Predict the structure.
Amino acid sequence: MATYRQAGKMTEVEVETNYFPNPEVLKRLIITESGFVFDPLRGKNYRVNSNGLAIIKFIQDGSNLAQIIEKLSEEYHVSREVIEHDIQEFFTNLQQQIK
């Protein structure tokens, strides 16, 4: 499901292209249920909260942005717009960590 640009808002395709971490990078990450993330190639580790953990797992399982938004919106009873904004912020932070 593609969305159209509104007042500077990115389309889902743009978000996936610009912010989704490379699937190969995600495959190498070691992730614990507590949110500890370790990148053995770079020797870096960091923590994510439960929402971040869910997003990473959805991506690793092959979910696209629309599917992730739908799943989180249903689970947390939050609007799609709020979820989409939060995901974009998370992806921005994640990209800085796992380039």
Q: What stands out?
A: Residues 12-97 form a domain with the Arc Repressor Mutant, subunit A fold (CATH 1.10.10). The radius of gyration is 13 Å.
